[in-house]
Amino acid sequence: MYEGGKGAGAVVTGGVVLPNTGGNEILTIIAITSIVVGAIILLSTIARLVVSRTITK
Fold it and tell me: How far apart are the C-alpha atoms of 34 and 48, rounded to whole Å?
């Protein structure tokens, strides 16, 4: 479902944009949201992988 690094890409993009917002609140909110959503995608992908490997054993 989330193959191709979409979660990691969102985290990296947010991390790159965050220090370069220039004090713009909207950009800061977008960057933080991107980091949070990307982290959730990564964690859910890892959790699904662990569960699928546990079930198949």
Answer: 21
Residue by residue, what is the 3-state secondary structure of the chain?
A: CCCCCHHHHHHHHHHHHHHHCCCCHHHHHHHHHHHHHHHHHHHHHHHHHHHHHHHHC
Other CB atoms within 10 A of residue 38 CB: 21
Do 7 and 45 contact (CB within 8 A), yes or no? yes
- CA–CA separation, 54 vs 3, rounded Å? 20
Q: Longest Cα pair distance anywhere in the chain, in angstroms?
A: 51
How confident is the model over 17-39, as pLDDT tens digits? Answer: 778 778 888 888 888 888 888 88
For the whole model, what pTM was predicted?
Answer: 0.71
